[in-house]
Amino acid sequence: MPSAKKRHVTVPDFLAAVETNHRISMVTAYDFLWAGIMDEAGVDSILVGDTLGMVIQGHSTTLPVTLDEMIYHGKIVCRAVRRALVIIDMPFMSYQESALQAVRNAGRIIKETGAGAVKLEGGHIQRSTIEAICRAEIPVMAHVGMRPQAVRRLGAMGRIQRDEQALLDDARAAEDAGAFGLVLELVPGDIARKITDALSIPTIGIGAGPGCSGQVLVGPDMLGLTPDFNPRFLKKFAELRDVAVDGVRDYIKEVELGTFPGAEHTHS
Ligand code: KIV
Predict the structure, then answer these.
(1) How far is the CA of 221 from the centre of ligand 1 (A)?
(2) Which residues contact residue 12 at a Cβ distance below 8 angstroms, ignoring those fewer than 6 apart?
(3) pTM, rounded to two decimals
């Protein structure tokens, strides 16, 4: 990976990371403020995930998120980022209809946001779609294992895949179709390691253990901003919600007591 602040991380850097055993760090961000913080910290990649439907918009699934909303969030993230590779999720029903629809919408994402790549859910079943997007010279990351966009057909737990052969087939199909990387969501750790060893593209795990080439977490979850979400795979690297609530409470108290603003905060 290029050293901090030198230049943008690219898709070839992702592929080279497998050779050099560099473990890729990825987090989600959805706006200028948080993308700037993540980039300043030196993360390799920022994913504008369709989890924004839940984390930012308050929906119970990712399904309602629209392409225009992804493009809006993608644009404001890209405006903040100096180094990380920005990858943008293709939302539900923006690529499932046909390869032509997928190419058009992936093209809109890249042209209108300035992001480096798109991500979509599926391996084997999206093979021809991944091929078509790659033929348009747009880098695609695939996402297998638990696929949140399949919630209506498979149910919440049914989306978790444990079948080793099916997972390996999905992973190989994505690589053969031209994907430059693969998210493994809630894949058992031993299978995730086998998939990682079998592929020449990097795997990015979430709840898939240390055997992946890199890791991704949802930014607000890892910073302790979503207190009701506590799955086993999540490590909270800060408790920012508590800090923020305490800060706002102190402000309210000082306004009520009349100790803020003081003379030093007053325009003269
Ligand atoms: O949408 C998202 O944030 C994701 C990550 C959980 C990998 O797909």
Answers:
(1) 11
(2) none
(3) 0.97
Of all protein residues, the one whose alpha carbon is nearest to atom 8 of ligand 1 is: 49
Which residue has the least CA distance to atom 6 on ligand 1?
Answer: 218
The string over 87-121, giving b where at least 16 C-beta atoms fall within 10 Å of a residue's C-beta and e elsewhere, is bbbbbbebbbeebeebbebbebbbebbebbbbbbb
Decide if 164 is catalytic.
Answer: no
For a substitution probing ligand 1, which of 34, 51, 121 has the most ligand atoms within 8 Å of its CB?
51
Tens-level pLDDT at each residue, the chain (268 residues)? 887 666 899 999 999 999 999 999 999 999 999 999 999 999 999 999 999 999 999 999 999 999 999 999 999 999 999 999 999 999 999 999 999 999 999 999 999 999 999 999 999 999 999 999 999 999 999 999 999 999 999 987 657 788 999 999 999 999 999 999 999 999 999 999 999 999 999 999 999 999 999 999 999 999 999 999 999 999 999 999 999 999 999 999 999 999 999 999 999 8
Domain extent listing, the chain: 11-237, 240-268
CB under 6 Å to ligand 1: residues? 28, 47, 49-51, 89, 143, 183, 185, 206, 216, 218
Which of 185, 239, 254, 256 is catalytic? The answer is 185
User: Residue 42 is encoded by which pair of tokens?
Assistant: 């030196």
Beta partners for 28? 47
C-alpha angle with apex 22: 89 to 209, nearest 5 degrees?
A: 65
- The atom number, within ligand 1, closest to the CA of 204 reads 7
CATH of 11-237, one of 3.40.50.10810, 3.30.70.1350, 3.40.390.30, 3.20.20.60: 3.20.20.60
